[in-house]
Amino acid sequence: MRTTILLPDSLFRETKAAAAASGRTVTALIEDALRERLARRSPGGKRPSRARLPVSRRKRGLRPGIDLDDSGALLEVMDGRE
C-alpha cells in the first residue's frame, strides 16, 4: 500500500541517515520500526495497569513487614488477602 506521512525534517534526515548506514531503504526502516513498536503493545491495545504498592498512611514508605523481595506475599497484600 502506498501512503503519505508527514515527518519533521530533522526526523526524516535522521531516518534517512540510519537507513543509509544500515544499507536499507527508508521504507524498510520505517516498516521494521512500526512492526517492533506494534509488537510491544499489550493485547487489546491497552497499556497494562500500574501495580500499587501498599504504603503506610502515617509515613511515606512501605508498610511495616512488607518485603519487596517476596513477590508472593506482596501479591497477597495487594490483592487484600493479608
- Biggest beta sheet summary: none
Beta-strand level of the residues, as a percent range? under 5%
Number of strands: 0
Q: What is the distance, rounded to the nearest whole angstrom, between the alpha carbons of the first and last residues?
A: 55 Å
The total count of helices amounts to 3
Low-confidence stretches: none
Q: Give the overall average pLDDT.
A: 81
- The assigned structural class equals mainly alpha
What value does the Rg take, in angstroms? 23 Å
Which bin fits the share of residues in helices? 40-55%
Order of helices and strands: HHH
Shape: elongated
Characterization of this structure:
The chain is mainly alpha-helical. Helices cover 45% and strands 0% of the residues. Helix 1 packs across helix 2. The radius of gyration is 23 Å and the shape is elongated. It starts with 8 loop residues before the first helix and ends with a helix.
Set out the fold topology.
Blueprint: H1 9-22, H2 26-40, H3 71-78
Features:
about 0% strand; elongated; about 80 residues; mainly alpha
Task: Provide a quick synopsis of the model.
This protein is mainly α and 82 residues long.
